[in-house]
Amino acid sequence: MFILRRITSENLQRNTILGESYLIIDKESNNEEYQKSLKSMKWTDDNDYYGFISYAQGSELLPLYKKSTYFIMVGNGQTFANITFK
Q: What is the pLDDT of residues 12-27, one digit of tens each?
């Protein structure tokens, strides 16, 4: 099981259960898929986020904000990946 931990610029922490799999849609790595995601969510590209994370078999999509810190955690609380904007 994967969990997304977001720490905002205001130092608030939010954990979201992603389940068994997730997909990171990064603006720089795959701009075409990023633009499709923007369009599907009816969001505008305001440069506040650098990508999205898709989970729940693609039915859920969360923006990844540049000013937040993100970690993918596994079920026992260990860090699996740091996906913070660089």
A: 999 999 999 999 999 9
The residue with tokens 């068994």 is 20
Half-sphere CA count of 82, side-chain side, radius 13 A = 6
Burial letters for 35-71: b for 16+ Cβ neighbours within 10 Å, e otherwise?
Answer: eebbeeeeeeeeeebbbbbbbeeeeebbbbbeebbbb
- Asked whether 3 and 62 are in contact (CB, 8 A), the reply is no
Count of positions (residues) in the chain = 86
Extents of the domains making up the chain: 2-82
